[in-house]
Amino acid sequence: MATLNPTLPSKKRPVSSSSSDPFPAAKKHHPHAEDPVAALANARHEFGEHGGVNMSIEASATFTVMEPETMRRMFAGELGPDRDFFVYSRHFNPTVLGLGRLMAAMEGTEAAYCTASGMSAVSAVLFQLCSAGGHVVASRTLYGGTHTLLSNFLPRTCNITTSFVDIRDHDAVDWAMVRGRTNVLYFETMSNPTLTVANVPELCRMAHDKGITVVVDNTFSPMVVSPARLGADVVLHSMSKFISGGADLIAGAVCGPASLVNSMMDTHQGSLMLLGPTMNPKVASELAGRLPHLGLRMKEHSNRALVYATRMRKAGLKVIYPGLEDHPDHATLKSMAIKEYGYGGLLCVDMETEERANRLMNLLQNCSQFGLMAVSLGYYETLMSCSGSSTSSELSQEEKELAGISPGLVRMSIGFNGTLEQKWSQFEKALSRMQDVSKV
Ligand SMILES: Cc1ncc(COP(=O)(O)O)c(C=O)c1O
């Protein structure tokens, strides 16, 4: 069946940019220096069917043709989505493809396609890049779901095994890549929950020397870091987080070379086509409307996280935030981050015991309204969870210790509602209640 070709023009749709290339990001010769917000603004603007300023929601599962010959040509691969010929929405859908083009522009990749969840983006890429018996080298600090996929599910179902390493220990990463017949080096730009930052350019160089594909989950740091501009082959997102910003949708994206996206859509061998984690076009339309203000939102998430981390530290709390100069990865993040977007919206407070962590979160939610006890991140309200007993509870005690997850670690995704000072006074109120109780 027909595939995407980043160089072919669209046949029917009006476009605002002078280029009708479906993937304008592919043309940039110096993508490294490019700001993702500028790249998004340069991307082709998809208008609605009747000239609407927003693209239409193509709410069709299947598509008709004017002549029977067209159907034959689509299945022969002669006509495809680049020329506005669509077959069936589990394959390409125009609205989902429109969002994919924006994601490709933002991440500086040739192509992108969006999926029903972040986990389906992660699993579909691993299924596509590894065959039975394949090997992955992965960071030992990963989102719990991805960690379990790699440590339990993939070995059981298809004998794809993973060596987990400390991604900051480059000798260990190198050794693990050489030892197995490695297909993929997998890590998160900024990883859950201890906010370890991977040195993307250096890790890419090491993997590429050995012909290994680098897959980076950039869910925690959209705009702040652009892994593909730093050398990564594939960038993944859970769009359920900062990109959505509303804590109301589950969605994911795979950004990478057009050859990879096309291979994932292949009718005989494609993981997206055959496993079918398809994004609903109504969700794609929602998300396309939120991407233009992602840059503004990230600036404010990061600004408040830095201010609060600094003040929490001054108040005597044990804070982990990569924007603080004494964070072990501060220099690495500074060297990769685009300055305007700060150091990200997540910080951790180590309360040492789960009991103290729960007491603080309870006061912050139920006494002072600083935030909500909930997993996930990227919402306009601050979200708080005790990582060891929630998003990382899949890890064994030993794995938690190796990943530096103390039982009292509270992860906070800092929101931007209310004023900065109003929210800070709510934090102080809860903290002083906590200190009063400990004195009794
Ligand atoms: C870093 C990271 N990757 C992937 C996922 C999975 O995303 P989703 O919940 O959208 O399937 C999550 C979140 O839950 C995450 O935090």
UniProtKB/TrEMBL annotation:
<feature type="region of interest" description="Disordered">
    <location>
        <begin position="1"/>
        <end position="32"/>
    </location>
</feature>
<dbReference type="GO" id="GO:0005737">
    <property type="term" value="C:cytoplasm"/>
</dbReference>
<dbReference type="Pfam" id="PF01053">
    <property type="entry name" value="Cys_Met_Meta_PP"/>
</dbReference>
<dbReference type="InterPro" id="IPR015424">
    <property type="entry name" value="PyrdxlP-dep_Trfase"/>
</dbReference>
<dbReference type="GO" id="GO:0030170">
    <property type="term" value="F:pyridoxal phosphate binding"/>
</dbReference>
<protein>
    <recommendedName>
        <fullName>Methionine-gamma-lyase</fullName>
    </recommendedName>
</protein>
<feature type="compositionally biased region" description="Low complexity">
    <location>
        <begin position="15"/>
        <end position="25"/>
    </location>
</feature>
<dbReference type="GO" id="GO:0019346">
    <property type="term" value="P:transsulfuration"/>
</dbReference>
<feature type="modified residue" description="N6-(pyridoxal phosphate)lysine">
    <location>
        <position position="241"/>
    </location>
</feature>
<keyword id="KW-0663">Pyridoxal phosphate</keyword>
<comment type="similarity">
    <text>Belongs to the trans-sulfuration enzymes family.</text>
</comment>
<dbReference type="GO" id="GO:0016846">
    <property type="term" value="F:carbon-sulfur lyase activity"/>
</dbReference>
<dbReference type="InterPro" id="IPR015422">
    <property type="entry name" value="PyrdxlP-dep_Trfase_small"/>
</dbReference>
<dbReference type="InterPro" id="IPR015421">
    <property type="entry name" value="PyrdxlP-dep_Trfase_major"/>
</dbReference>
<dbReference type="InterPro" id="IPR000277">
    <property type="entry name" value="Cys/Met-Metab_PyrdxlP-dep_enz"/>
</dbReference>
